[in-house]
Amino acid sequence: MTKKILIIGGSGFIGRNLSEYLTSINIEYIVYDRILPNYKCNYIIGDINHYEQLEDSINSCDSVINLAGILGTTETINTPEYCYKNNISGALNLYEILKKNPKNCIQISVGNYWMNNPYSITKNTAEKIALFYNKKFSTNIKVVRALNAYGPYQSAYPVRKLIPNLIMPALKDKEILIYGSGNQKMDMIYVGDLVKILFYLLQKKNIKNDIIYEAGSGTAPTVNDICNKVIDLTKTKSIVKHIEMRKGETPESVVLGNTKYIEDVGYDINSLLSLDNGLTKTIMYYKKV
Length: 289
Hints:
Layout (H helix, E strand, L loop, with lengths): L3 E5 L4 H12 L3 E6 L9 E3 L5 H9 L3 E4 L13 H21 L3 E7 L7 H20 L2 E7 L1 E3 L11 H10 L4 E4 L5 E2 L1 E3 H13 L8 E4 L7 H12 L5 E4 L10 E2 L4 H5 L10 H14 L1
Helix pairs in contact: 1-6, 3-4, 5-7, 5-9, 7-9
């Protein structure tokens, strides 16, 4: 059993949910982030690009989950250098340290890895480099593409994520904005399920590290379908308005996870929360904030 985990980039949405889950199962962890966590935890204020500090922090733990990264599709188009520095150069620092001192590691990636924007390009590059290190240097970095995670603590801004930007206006009976036709298909995964998958794969022994694990439901409703569920569950009077598609995103795209590899290593996909139940829990959270 894993004894102590370093969560790089643990101050964010997924990191906070992961921290709560690890606490609930009595697993020790340290959050390593440039940003001070806004919740109670053991933490180190540090940057993934600071090699020596990162190395010291990794060496103090048994395993690593790397959630660090500059996020955003449209939001990163004019600042690709920040994506490169953190999503590629920072990940490379991590891999070099793991080459010298092998530890189990999860490198999180994205479901829309094929989109033509700095975020998707750099995260896709980082996952390819991880697989290269596994093959050439015998590191044990498991790459996990997280599909469209949603749930408690997810912010609506500055990176505009779908679910909070549906639920928050719905709860106030305000106009709901949808980019494009709304026929884009998105595989949604409740963040509580995502963090369980990350931990499961981290501690699972003797599984392949030359493949990419995809953490999703294996189903992809349209944005319109998801919006209609939110409208029904909130009983809102909101009006839906379709606006121009954003730059860096593909009209009517399909982002769908292949659950084969996580099922092959024994993860029960049937245990995932349904979209209706996940949205209900998420709506309850936003009602309180």
